[in-house]
Amino acid sequence: MTNPDVIAEGDFPSSRQVKTKYGVVEGRRLIHGVEKEVDAFQGIPFAKPPVGKLRFELPQPPEPWEGVKETKAFALRSQQGIFPYEDPEFTKKYPVSEDSLYLNVFTPCWKPESEKGFPVLVYIHGGAFLIDSSIKYGDICICRNICRKDVVCVTIQYRLGLLGFMATGDDACPDNLALWDMTEALKWVKENIAQFNGDPDNVTIMGQSAGVILIDLFTRYIAMAGNATCAFSIHEYMIEECRLKMEERGVIYKGNSKEFIEELRRLPADAFNIPAPTKLDRLNGRVQLSVGPRIDGKFFPKPLAELRNETKGKPHIVGMAGEEGLLASMPPWTVESCRTLVQSNIAGLIKEKVSPTKVRKTRNDIIKMLVDIKKEESLDAWCRALVQSNGDVFCYIDTQKHVLECAEMGREPCYFYSFDYYNPDMFGPLGEEMAYKGSTHCCDITYALGTRILADFKFTELDQKITDLWSTLITNFVKYSDPNGPDGEEPLLNGAKWEPVTIDQPQKHLAVNKESKVELIFKIITKMMIMKYESIETKKGKEE
Asked: Where is the Carboxylesterase type B domain (predicted)?
């Protein structure tokens, strides 16, 4: 069911009317009758519907309209399969459609202090490039927790699955259509956000999970549960994967890409649905999503590492949940199944750095860091080892390498966090499948916006306290490039300051929990494993 603290229902006054480049829009005033009122404009088109001949084409600017367009409700969710743990009432109430390139603007009604307007936060949702929508992140919760702190917030949608990542390797179909959609939405923000009292030159991009792929190539950013250096961010076999998946649907590639795409345009939209994953898929021991971006020479003219090195350093926040791998660790829960997956995870991380004959010994050395030898037959010990290693494979190792790189280069403020707080009720039916409950994937964005991602649950007083703190740190960063806020303000963290990592303290991070304090060591096991991997690489180099 829809939570009224997340998605507003019922009658609300109309918002002010705003003239965009394409026409006038009118939304709702979701917070009204108080000192700080907030308007919401939902379902604004930023591109033409990508249907018919525009399926598998780059996004096109929307058609202008006459009169006033009502933007008072979320657009339909992007075409996608069903997540098995999703509330059936939610999927019934919010259907999917190929016509889904819309965004939402939430904006304060009072006059900004700066003549340029309020700072802007653009949120790009995650979902393994397969599922999710802007709806799940709410409207009234964003108005309360983000906009009332003097920030304009924009949430966007983009094509998902095969519709967003179809690849032929030639000009029959542009690669990375989902990323072009995101770029078109950001272009719309640049051209129109001033009309909503936003500053087009002060935009922070925030992404979570799959939504992080684009953000660190643009401006000041907040990356939750990954970044563009993580293994899942690029799909190395997307062309082959597309042909294989379409062959499963009865469309066989016969050597002519244009004929292949024309045949695909005749299929119904739901023919492209891919079941959402409930655990990590692996290819050669590494995380591999069902679909994803590829280095195409156009959107990505070079490998991501080269592109990042060529861009000027940007202030950013990066981090993940304390038990990030928990959500990707699903039954069967047996010692043998957990041991097999842990061995696969570690072998995948090290096999390119050691000779095949040394993989087993090195793998076993690392397993000893994860599993107490005295508890080797303990199911709980192996479950926790699997969760840890899944987190390492998914984002811990690559994210911490990114943080260490930032500390060594010293060119950009990098604020590192571990989100360790959770409410045991926040997982819903999914919690019954988990090995144990802890702060996992999606916990950080839940409390950043005050939404409910994994399941509906009632916020406690402590939940709201964490949301107030976390959303304030984020909006401070959006406004000042510093989560602590301007100099002279009372510290938010019991007198402490959340400072960027440094070469002397590359592990320094904010641990968001009941106490929320700055700590100097991030997951000692992960740190040891990084050192182990790096020593392996060094030894291999010497041997060669």
From this structure: 15-518
Q: From CA 205, how far away is CA 198, in angstroms rounded? A: 14
pTM of the model: 0.89
- Tokens representing 170 are 């030639």
The one catalytic residue in 15, 133, 209, 471 is 209
Residue 269's CB is within 10 A of a number of other CB atoms, namely 16
Residue 8, in any domain of the structure: no
> Is 324 among the residues known to form the active site?
yes
Residues 518-527: tens digit of each pLDDT:
776 665 445 4
Alpha helices by DSSP H, listed for 376-505, are 379-391, 397-409, 443-449, 461-480
Above 80 in pLDDT, residue 307?
Answer: no
3-state secondary structure of 68: strand
| Residue 528 covered by a domain | yes
3-state secondary structure of 28: strand
Say if 420 falls within a structural domain: yes
pLDDT average, residue stretch 446-450: 96
The residue ranking higher by pLDDT, 515 or 61, is: 61
**CA distances to 395, 400, 452 from 318, in Å:** 11, 9, 21
Task: Give the structural domain span for 420.
Answer: 14-543
Which of 217, 228, 206, 234 has its CA nearest to residue 125? 206
Q: Is the pLDDT of residue 537 over 50?
A: no
What confidence score (pLDDT) does residue 31 get?
98
Per-residue buried b or exposed e for 58-93, using 16+ beta carbons within 10 Å of the residue's own CB: ebeebeeeeeebebbbbbbbbbbbebebbbeebeee
With beta carbons less than 8 A apart as the criterion, state whether 397 and 529 touch: yes
Contact 267, 214 (CB under 8 A): no
| Structure tokens, 335 | 């010692």
Top mean-pLDDT range of 79-88, 105-114, 341-350: 105-114
Q: How many whole angstroms from its chain centre is CA 273?
A: 20
- Choose, from 100, 133, 324, 471, the residue flagged as catalytic: 324
- CA gap 57, 60 in Å, rounded: 8
Number of structural domains, the chain?
1
User: What pLDDT sits at residue 350?
Assistant: 67
pLDDT score for 400: 82
Give the long-range contacts of residues 87-93, CB within 8 A, separation 24 or more: 87/1, 87/428, 87/455, 87/456, 89/1, 89/2, 90/1, 90/2, 93/2
DSSP category for residue 72: B
User: What are the tens digits of pLDDT across the range 497-515?
Assistant: 999 999 888 888 999 998 8
Would you state the structure tokens that stand for residue 157, as one six-digit string? 């949608």
Average pLDDT over residues 171-199: 96
Closest by Cα among 342, 318, 491, 278 to 404: 318
Predicted confidence (pLDDT) per residue in 84-129, tens digit? 888 888 999 999 999 999 999 999 999 999 999 999 999 999 888 8
Q: Is 321 helix (H, G, I), strand (E, B) or coil?
A: strand
Active-site residue, selected from the candidate residues 418, 441, 471, 509? 441
Residue 120 is assigned to a structural domain of this protein: yes
